[in-house]
Write a structure and sequence with these properties.
Elements lengths: L7 E10 L2 E11 L4 E5 L6 H9 L6 E6 L2 E2 L5 H6 L2 E4 L11 H7 L7 H11 L1 H4 L11 H14 L4 E5 L7 H15 L3 E5 L3 H7 L2 E6 L2 E7 L8 H7 L2
Parallel strand pairs: 3-8, 3-9, 6-7, 7-8
Antiparallel strand pairs: 1-2, 1-4, 4-5, 9-10
Helix pairs in contact: 3-6, 4-6, 6-7
Bound molecules: adenosine-5'-triphosphate.
Protein backbone atom coordinates (compact mmCIF):
# COMPACT_ATOMS: atom_id res chain seq x y z
CA UNK A 1 0.00 0.00 0.00
CA UNK A 2 1.29 3.45 -0.82
CA UNK A 3 1.13 6.36 1.59
CA UNK A 4 -0.34 8.63 -1.09
CA UNK A 5 -3.24 10.73 0.17
CA UNK A 6 -6.71 9.82 -1.13
CA UNK A 7 -7.52 11.06 -4.64
CA UNK A 8 -10.52 12.80 -3.08
CA UNK A 9 -11.44 13.55 0.51
CA UNK A 10 -14.44 15.41 1.91
CA UNK A 11 -14.32 16.39 5.53
CA UNK A 12 -17.40 17.79 7.28
CA UNK A 13 -18.80 19.42 4.14
CA UNK A 14 -21.84 21.67 4.63
CA UNK A 15 -23.45 23.15 1.51
CA UNK A 16 -26.50 25.32 0.99
CA UNK A 17 -28.76 26.65 -1.74
CA UNK A 18 -29.55 30.06 -0.32
CA UNK A 19 -30.90 29.38 3.17
CA UNK A 20 -31.58 25.74 2.41
CA UNK A 21 -29.04 23.61 4.29
CA UNK A 22 -28.58 20.56 2.05
CA UNK A 23 -25.27 18.90 2.96
CA UNK A 24 -24.87 18.51 6.70
CA UNK A 25 -21.37 17.33 7.29
CA UNK A 26 -20.45 14.92 4.49
CA UNK A 27 -17.31 12.86 5.11
CA UNK A 28 -16.01 10.56 2.41
CA UNK A 29 -12.78 9.47 0.77
CA UNK A 30 -11.92 7.88 -2.56
CA UNK A 31 -8.48 6.33 -2.90
CA UNK A 32 -6.52 6.64 -6.13
CA UNK A 33 -7.80 4.03 -8.61
CA UNK A 34 -10.81 3.17 -6.48
CA UNK A 35 -14.41 3.15 -7.72
CA UNK A 36 -16.89 4.40 -5.19
CA UNK A 37 -20.68 4.74 -5.31
CA UNK A 38 -22.72 7.44 -3.66
CA UNK A 39 -26.25 6.15 -3.21
CA UNK A 40 -29.42 7.31 -1.51
CA UNK A 41 -32.95 8.22 -2.45
CA UNK A 42 -34.06 11.31 -4.40
CA UNK A 43 -33.16 14.65 -2.94
CA UNK A 44 -30.74 13.50 -0.20
CA UNK A 45 -27.86 15.55 -1.64
CA UNK A 46 -25.95 13.27 -4.03
CA UNK A 47 -25.76 15.76 -6.89
CA UNK A 48 -25.05 18.55 -4.42
CA UNK A 49 -22.07 16.53 -3.16
CA UNK A 50 -20.67 16.41 -6.71
CA UNK A 51 -21.40 20.13 -7.16
CA UNK A 52 -19.61 20.87 -3.89
CA UNK A 53 -16.53 18.94 -5.04
CA UNK A 54 -16.54 20.83 -8.35
CA UNK A 55 -16.95 24.24 -6.72
CA UNK A 56 -20.32 24.78 -8.43
CA UNK A 57 -21.99 24.89 -5.01
CA UNK A 58 -19.00 25.78 -2.84
CA UNK A 59 -19.17 24.36 0.70
CA UNK A 60 -19.78 26.92 3.44
CA UNK A 61 -18.07 24.69 5.99
CA UNK A 62 -15.67 21.75 5.82
CA UNK A 63 -13.05 20.90 3.24
CA UNK A 64 -12.54 19.15 -0.08
CA UNK A 65 -9.07 17.80 -0.80
CA UNK A 66 -7.74 16.53 -4.10
CA UNK A 67 -4.64 14.34 -3.79
CA UNK A 68 -4.12 15.91 -0.37
CA UNK A 69 -4.43 19.52 -1.57
CA UNK A 70 -7.22 21.69 -0.23
CA UNK A 71 -9.40 22.81 -3.16
CA UNK A 72 -12.31 24.18 -1.10
CA UNK A 73 -13.35 27.50 -2.63
CA UNK A 74 -11.25 26.97 -5.76
CA UNK A 75 -12.86 28.02 -9.05
CA UNK A 76 -14.55 25.24 -11.01
CA UNK A 77 -12.38 25.69 -14.12
CA UNK A 78 -9.27 25.33 -11.97
CA UNK A 79 -10.62 22.13 -10.39
CA UNK A 80 -11.36 20.80 -13.89
CA UNK A 81 -7.84 21.74 -14.96
CA UNK A 82 -6.50 19.52 -12.18
CA UNK A 83 -8.04 16.44 -13.77
CA UNK A 84 -11.55 16.24 -12.32
CA UNK A 85 -14.08 15.28 -15.01
CA UNK A 86 -17.81 15.63 -14.63
CA UNK A 87 -20.49 13.60 -16.40
CA UNK A 88 -23.58 15.58 -15.41
CA UNK A 89 -27.06 14.24 -14.90
CA UNK A 90 -29.06 14.49 -18.12
CA UNK A 91 -25.93 14.03 -20.29
CA UNK A 92 -25.49 17.64 -21.26
CA UNK A 93 -23.68 18.01 -24.56
CA UNK A 94 -23.85 19.97 -27.80
CA UNK A 95 -26.73 18.20 -29.50
CA UNK A 96 -26.23 20.00 -32.84
CA UNK A 97 -22.55 19.11 -33.03
CA UNK A 98 -21.36 15.73 -34.24
CA UNK A 99 -20.05 13.09 -31.85
CA UNK A 100 -16.52 13.87 -32.97
CA UNK A 101 -16.99 17.64 -32.55
CA UNK A 102 -18.35 17.07 -29.05
CA UNK A 103 -15.24 15.08 -28.19
CA UNK A 104 -12.85 17.60 -29.76
CA UNK A 105 -14.49 20.42 -27.79
CA UNK A 106 -13.76 18.59 -24.52
CA UNK A 107 -10.01 18.14 -25.05
CA UNK A 108 -7.46 20.18 -23.15
CA UNK A 109 -5.79 23.16 -24.84
CA UNK A 110 -2.39 21.46 -25.03
CA UNK A 111 -3.72 18.03 -26.06
CA UNK A 112 -3.03 16.07 -29.22
CA UNK A 113 -6.68 16.38 -30.18
CA UNK A 114 -6.80 13.73 -32.90
CA UNK A 115 -5.06 11.15 -30.71
CA UNK A 116 -7.32 11.84 -27.72
CA UNK A 117 -10.45 11.52 -29.86
CA UNK A 118 -9.23 8.19 -31.30
CA UNK A 119 -8.51 6.89 -27.78
CA UNK A 120 -12.01 7.82 -26.64
CA UNK A 121 -13.51 6.12 -29.69
CA UNK A 122 -11.44 3.03 -28.89
CA UNK A 123 -13.06 2.99 -25.44
CA UNK A 124 -16.54 3.26 -27.01
CA UNK A 125 -16.36 1.38 -30.33
CA UNK A 126 -20.09 1.81 -30.83
CA UNK A 127 -19.58 5.57 -31.18
CA UNK A 128 -17.05 5.11 -33.96
CA UNK A 129 -19.82 4.30 -36.45
CA UNK A 130 -21.66 7.47 -35.49
CA UNK A 131 -18.77 9.92 -35.25
CA UNK A 132 -20.16 12.30 -37.88
CA UNK A 133 -23.78 12.21 -36.68
CA UNK A 134 -25.27 14.95 -34.53
CA UNK A 135 -25.05 13.86 -30.90
CA UNK A 136 -28.70 14.84 -30.42
CA UNK A 137 -29.79 12.22 -32.97
CA UNK A 138 -28.26 9.29 -31.09
CA UNK A 139 -30.09 6.92 -28.75
CA UNK A 140 -30.12 7.71 -25.02
CA UNK A 141 -27.49 5.07 -24.32
CA UNK A 142 -25.20 6.35 -27.07
CA UNK A 143 -25.63 9.91 -25.77
CA UNK A 144 -24.62 8.68 -22.32
CA UNK A 145 -21.52 7.16 -23.90
CA UNK A 146 -20.71 10.51 -25.57
CA UNK A 147 -21.10 12.22 -22.19
CA UNK A 148 -18.70 9.76 -20.56
CA UNK A 149 -16.28 9.88 -23.50
CA UNK A 150 -16.21 13.69 -23.19
CA UNK A 151 -14.95 13.37 -19.62
CA UNK A 152 -12.43 10.77 -20.74
CA UNK A 153 -11.08 12.78 -23.64
CA UNK A 154 -10.24 15.61 -21.23
CA UNK A 155 -7.51 13.40 -19.76
CA UNK A 156 -9.11 13.37 -16.32
CA UNK A 157 -8.02 10.97 -13.63
CA UNK A 158 -11.02 11.43 -11.35
CA UNK A 159 -14.47 11.13 -12.87
CA UNK A 160 -17.65 12.26 -11.13
CA UNK A 161 -20.51 10.50 -12.90
CA UNK A 162 -24.09 11.50 -12.07
CA UNK A 163 -26.95 9.03 -12.69
CA UNK A 164 -25.73 7.44 -15.92
CA UNK A 165 -28.68 5.01 -16.02
CA UNK A 166 -31.34 7.69 -15.70
CA UNK A 167 -34.09 7.39 -18.28
CA UNK A 168 -32.48 4.45 -20.10
CA UNK A 169 -34.16 1.15 -20.95
CA UNK A 170 -32.71 -1.88 -19.09
CA UNK A 171 -30.92 -3.28 -22.15
CA UNK A 172 -29.29 0.07 -22.82
CA UNK A 173 -28.31 0.35 -19.15
CA UNK A 174 -26.33 -2.88 -19.65
CA UNK A 175 -24.40 -1.29 -22.52
CA UNK A 176 -23.59 1.74 -20.40
CA UNK A 177 -22.52 -0.52 -17.53
CA UNK A 178 -20.18 -2.41 -19.87
CA UNK A 179 -18.69 0.85 -21.12
CA UNK A 180 -18.30 2.24 -17.60
CA UNK A 181 -16.79 -0.93 -16.19
CA UNK A 182 -14.01 -1.06 -18.76
CA UNK A 183 -13.36 2.61 -18.15
CA UNK A 184 -13.42 2.14 -14.38
CA UNK A 185 -10.28 0.01 -14.59
CA UNK A 186 -8.21 3.03 -15.59
CA UNK A 187 -9.67 5.94 -13.64
CA UNK A 188 -10.83 6.82 -10.17
CA UNK A 189 -14.60 6.99 -10.15
CA UNK A 190 -17.20 8.54 -7.88
CA UNK A 191 -20.55 7.34 -9.17
CA UNK A 192 -23.94 8.72 -8.16
CA UNK A 193 -26.59 6.18 -9.06
CA UNK A 194 -30.20 5.39 -8.13
CA UNK A 195 -29.93 1.89 -9.57
CA UNK A 196 -28.49 0.16 -6.50
CA UNK A 197 -27.49 -3.21 -8.06
CA UNK A 198 -25.79 -1.39 -10.94
CA UNK A 199 -23.95 0.91 -8.55
CA UNK A 200 -22.71 -2.05 -6.47
CA UNK A 201 -21.69 -3.93 -9.61
CA UNK A 202 -19.48 -1.11 -10.79
CA UNK A 203 -17.79 -0.11 -7.55
CA UNK A 204 -15.48 -1.32 -4.79
CA UNK A 205 -17.11 0.63 -1.96
CA UNK A 206 -20.21 2.69 -1.34
CA UNK A 207 -21.45 5.54 0.78
CA UNK A 208 -25.15 5.82 1.59
CA UNK A 209 -26.40 9.36 2.01
CA UNK A 210 -29.52 10.49 3.84
CA UNK A 211 -30.57 14.06 4.60
CA UNK A 212 -27.16 15.39 3.67
CA UNK A 213 -25.00 13.04 5.75
CA UNK A 214 -23.37 9.67 5.26
CA UNK A 215 -25.37 7.11 7.23
CA UNK A 216 -23.65 3.92 6.06
CA UNK A 217 -20.62 2.84 4.07
CA UNK A 218 -18.97 -0.44 3.18
CA UNK A 219 -17.75 -2.85 0.52
CA UNK A 220 -19.97 -3.02 -2.53
CA UNK A 221 -19.68 -6.78 -2.93
CA UNK A 222 -20.70 -7.43 0.67
CA UNK A 223 -24.01 -5.63 0.63
CA UNK A 224 -27.39 -6.42 -0.85
CA UNK A 225 -30.47 -4.40 -1.54
CA UNK A 226 -32.24 -6.54 1.08
CA UNK A 227 -29.92 -5.41 3.83
CA UNK A 228 -32.09 -3.83 6.53
CA UNK A 229 -30.24 -0.49 6.63
CA UNK A 230 -30.10 -0.22 2.85
CA UNK A 231 -33.82 -0.92 2.59
CA UNK A 232 -34.63 1.63 5.23
CA UNK A 233 -32.70 4.40 3.48
CA UNK A 234 -33.42 3.51 -0.12
CA UNK A 235 -37.15 2.89 -0.02
CA UNK A 236 -39.30 5.93 -0.61
N1 LIG B 1 -30.44 24.78 -7.46
C1 LIG B 1 -31.10 24.45 -6.36
N2 LIG B 1 -31.70 25.39 -5.60
C2 LIG B 1 -32.38 25.06 -4.47
N3 LIG B 1 -32.51 23.81 -4.01
C3 LIG B 1 -31.94 22.83 -4.71
C4 LIG B 1 -31.21 23.09 -5.92
N4 LIG B 1 -30.74 21.91 -6.40
C5 LIG B 1 -31.17 20.97 -5.53
N5 LIG B 1 -31.88 21.51 -4.52
C6 LIG B 1 -32.48 20.78 -3.38
O1 LIG B 1 -31.41 20.22 -2.64
C7 LIG B 1 -31.75 18.91 -2.17
C8 LIG B 1 -30.71 17.92 -2.64
O2 LIG B 1 -30.73 17.82 -4.06
P1 LIG B 1 -29.75 16.89 -4.88
O3 LIG B 1 -30.02 17.14 -6.33
O4 LIG B 1 -28.38 17.05 -4.39
O5 LIG B 1 -30.28 15.47 -4.48
P2 LIG B 1 -29.95 14.07 -5.09
O6 LIG B 1 -29.69 13.17 -3.95
O7 LIG B 1 -28.91 14.19 -6.14
O8 LIG B 1 -31.32 13.64 -5.73
P3 LIG B 1 -31.78 13.52 -7.25
O9 LIG B 1 -31.48 12.13 -7.61
O10 LIG B 1 -33.25 13.79 -7.16
O11 LIG B 1 -31.04 14.55 -8.04
C9 LIG B 1 -33.16 18.63 -2.70
O12 LIG B 1 -34.06 18.93 -1.66
C10 LIG B 1 -33.31 19.60 -3.84
O13 LIG B 1 -34.64 19.99 -3.99
Amino acid sequence: MSDAPPALELDGVHSYYGESHVLRGVDLAVEQGENVALVGRNGVGKTTTLRSILGLTPPREGSVRLHGEDITGTETHEIARRGVGWVPEGRRMFSHLSVEENLRAATRPDADVAARVEEALDAFPELRDHRTRDAGDLSGGQQQMVAIARALVGDNDLLLVDEPSEGLAPLIVEEVVDALSSLAEDVTLLLVEQNFPMAMDLTDRFYLLDHGTVVESGDSDAVSQDDETIRRYLSA
